[in-house]
Amino acid sequence: VTFWHDVQPPAWVPPIVLQVGLLGTVILFCAYAVEKELQLRRLTKLLVDERVLTAALTSRLREVSTLLEAGKAMNLVLDLEEVLGTILECANELLDTHDGSIMLVHGEGELRTVSVWGSSGARGARLKFGDGVAGKVAQTREPVLVTGVLDPGKWTGGGGAVQPPTSSMSVPLVYRDTLLGVLNVNATPGRAYTRHQLRALSLFGEQAAAAIANARLYEEQRLLASQNVYQALHDLLTNLPNRALFLDRVNHALARRRPSGQLVALLFLDLDDFKLINDSLGHAAGDEVLITFADRLRTCVRSGDAMARFGGDEFAVLVEEVVSPADAVATAERILALFAEPFGVGERRVWLRASIGIAIEGLGASSADALLRNADTANSSSRASCSTPSSTVSSRSITSRSSPLPTDAPSASRRSCAGSTPPAGSCPRWRSCLSPSRPASWSRSTAGCCAMPVRRCRRSAREWSCRPAFS
Q1: What pTM was estimated for this model as a whole?
Q2: Where do the domains of the chain lie, and which CATH numbers do they carry?
Q3: Residue 309 forms beta bridges with which residues?
């Protein structure tokens, strides 16, 4: 005011004009200040929104990154149990869950808990479609967000030791329009999930369903591959190893380091006149006889030895840790003793006999093929000598032959080979056939192991025949 009174306006300017001008200047200044204030507030709001958006984008990027990492982690694992555990771990990393569970579809309209994480109470749970939250999710295939305690009465009486989840989510696991199961997660007490998190879990559930489907496909392919390998290396009728697997076992046995003096022996046997059974009783009866003989063979072979069916009525046995030919002959005797009992084919009883050729490592054979060839040669020699049961020992092989067993069938059903009937009361003797190239000392050393046991020699004349008999 003092300044105003000190200023002397020009005489030609009225005082009222100066006053109005000054007032207008003040008003404009105030308007400018208000505008700046509003602009500053708008900038502040934009900055706050930008920070909120940045935080939201950061959270989304973290979720996307977690989803990508979860997808990689789940796709790197092919075992179903490991895949389920990885899914729950990734879900916890994505949403910071308190616990979770995975329920897979079992049968028609039923869910079963197959994996849990944390202190989930869903362990061992089973639900029908439509029962409970998980059952409704499976029925509708729509994700569900639960806010608040779903069943307060369930948590009463616990003394407050276990706090109920205040929020939970359940999403379906669908792969190519096929429902695989339901993924359930519970929030930590006091925390509530949002719809955005429900959407994130739904996206995660799609990847989890694909990982579960891939793990199941891998298990099916692995099972199919193992079945194919088993079928390729085993005889499907008797479930014994086939020729390829048996020769591989022989090669490994020959290549394995063994104590000095231990050898490997190969027994090659076939059922004499097995074709007569197929022609007389049919191939089904022949298959039944082969299966029965394979079961019997398993009982008399040591656990460390191997056996195989080469096809038809031909079988082979690998005997390891053979110190002398007597060990191999003893195994052959145990196999021949299997024919002391008839083979049941339906209501019939069939008596059979077998020819066995034995080849021992080192006696002119040091490979699987050579052992098999020598054993086959010895078997053919045994099969050709139908006159009497015999044991043939050469520089390459040993052969032994079982005698026919008594039968109750009419005599017309049995045919005897020429010279196969020994005198009544006599004891058939085993013969030793030595190669000229072998010294006589081998004959003496093998005489004991090639002798026919007395209990197998006491047979009447009518027991010696070359054909299987039926009763």
Answers
A1: 0.57
A2: 76-149+163-231 (3.30.450.40), 243-470 (3.30.70.270)
A3: 315
Smallest Cα–Cα separation from 414: which of 358, 338, 352?
352
Q: How far apart are CA 316 and CA 337, in angstroms?
A: 16
Q: Which amino acid is at 440?
A: A
Q: How far is CA 292 from the centre of its chain?
A: 29
Pull the structure tokens for residue 255.
């290549």
Tell me the DSSP string of 230-294.
Answer: HHHHB-TTT--B-HHHHHHHHHHHHHS---TT-EEEEEEEEETTHHHHHHHH-HHHHHHHHHHHH
Cβ-based neighbour number of residue 40 at 10 Å:
10
What is 150-161 written as a DSSP string? S-GGGGTTSTTS
Would you state the structure tokens that stand for residue 268, as one six-digit string?
Answer: 């090659």
Residue 393's DSSP bridge partners are 398
Tokens of 44: 């502040």
Q: What is the spatial distance between Cα 243 and Cα 369, in angstroms, rounded to a whole number?
A: 11
Q: How far apart are alpha carbons 384 and 275 in whole angstroms? A: 16
3-class DSSP state for residue 422?
Answer: coil
Taking each helix axis from N to C end, the angle separating 15-76 and 80-95, rounded to the nearest 10 degrees, works out to 170
Please tell me whether residue 24 adopts helix, strand or coil conformation: helix
Q: What is the mean pLDDT of each run of 10 residues along the chain (471 residues)?
A: 60 78 89 92 90 79 74 78 89 86 91 90 89 92 86 55 78 94 90 88 90 91 90 92 93 86 90 87 92 93 91 92 89 92 88 90 75 89 58 40 39 30 32 29 28 28 34 34
Strands (E), 131-235: 144-147, 167-175, 178-186
